[in-house]
């Protein structure tokens, strides 16, 4: 299969030296890309800024910084893919304007105006017209099941991998993860805490067996 994986955080510039971002290390997405390469698939990895070694054997690797860049890259190649796995932690908002010079301290408080970034996963079915297997992630700190099922339906996913990022030792920037996989047909599968590479192999098997 041709498989697209998004991984890592995005950075949304505030001025020439500052940005808004999150704690994603890229480890989960890179583990998925490595598992897919090892299984013989043609893998395109679209990565935000991370401190990881680029996996060997990829069909393509694209390094991006912002949500806008990740969206443009995904939009350009999604149509060629059999499956797409969205493990990136994309910023939902960016500063409305990027200051051309470093912002100076002018008072005790500073108010930022933020605007929405493109919802890449949410655009995959419409308007991008993707008909392959769509795998989303959900990073939640409460009501994991309800939020995951909402994202699964709203974004047209076949599988939604939900992780509780409020728990110590899993989720963002750790070597391990635990997740519940929700399927569009109503099935649910709990995956116990395990190294991200082991979890990625299990997820990949699920993905392979879910492709019609
Ligand atoms: O990178 P690690 O340190 O290994 O951590 C792994 C992880 C916790 C980042 C990963 O397991 C994970 O949960 N990734 C999704 C993080 C996230 O942004 O979740 P979300 O619930 O905010 O987004 C839901 C889905 O929409 C995700 O598939 C996300 O990639 C996608 N999305 C979100 C916003 C946006 N503008 N575009 C998107 O495509």
Query: Mean pLDDT score, rounded?
Result: 97
- CATH-level-2 architecture: 3-Layer(aba) Sandwich
| Distinct small molecules bound, one entry per kind | ligand PMT
Number of strands: 12
- Helix and strand pattern: EEEHEEHEEEHEHEEEH
CATH class: Alpha Beta
CATH topology, which one?
Rossmann fold
At the fourth CATH level, what is the homologous superfamily?
CoaB-like
Query: Could you tell me how far the N terminus lies from the C terminus, measured between alpha carbons in angstroms?
Result: 12 Å
Low-confidence parts:
none
Number of helices: 5
How much helix is in the residues? 25-40%
Q: What count of structural domains?
A: 1
The coarse overall form would be globular
Strand content: 25-35%
Largest sheet: 8 strands, mixed
Radius of gyration: 17 Å
Main sheet strand line-up:
5-4-1-6-9-10-11-12
Descriptive overview:
This protein has 212 residues and is α/β, with parallel strands linked by helices. It has one domain: 3-Layer(aba) Sandwich (Rossmann fold), CATH 3.40.50.10300. It is 25% helix and 30% strand. It has 5 helices and 12 strands. The chain has an 8-stranded mixed β-sheet with strand order 5-4-1-6-9-10-11-12, with helices on both faces. The protein has a two-stranded antiparallel sheet with strand order 2-3. α1 crosses α5. The mean pLDDT is 97. The structure holds ligand PMT. Ligand PMT binds at residues 6, 8, 24-28, 67, 86-90, 92, 117, 119-121, 136-139, 151, 163, 165, 171-173.
């Amino acid at each position: 299969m041709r498989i697209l994986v998004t991984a890592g955080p995005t950075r949304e510039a505030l001025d020439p030296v500052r940005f808004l971002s999150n704690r994603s290390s890229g480890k989960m997405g890179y583990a998925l890309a490595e598992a897919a390469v090892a299984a013989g698939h043609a893998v395109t990895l679209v990565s935000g800024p991370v401190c990881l070694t680029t996996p060997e054997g990829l069909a393509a690797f694209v390094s991006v910084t912002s949500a806008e860049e990740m969206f443009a890259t995904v939009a350009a190649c999604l149509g060629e893919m059999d499956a797409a796995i969205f493990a990136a932690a994309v910023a939902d908002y960016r500063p409305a304007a990027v200051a051309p010079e470093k912002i100076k301290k002018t008072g005790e408080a500073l108010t930022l105006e933020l605007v929405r970034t493109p919802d890449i996963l949410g655009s995959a079915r419409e308007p991008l017209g993707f008909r392959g297997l769509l795998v989303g992630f959900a990073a939640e700190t409460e009501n994991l099941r309800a939020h995951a099922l909402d994202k699964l339906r709203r974004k047209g996913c076949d599988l939604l991998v939900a992780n509780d990022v409020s728990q110590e030792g899993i989720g963002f920037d750790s070597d391990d993860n635990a997740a519940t996989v929700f399927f569009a047909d109503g099935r649910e599968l709990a995956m116990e805490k395990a190294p991200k590479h082991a979890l990625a192999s299990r997820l990949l098997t699920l993905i392979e067996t879910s492709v019609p």
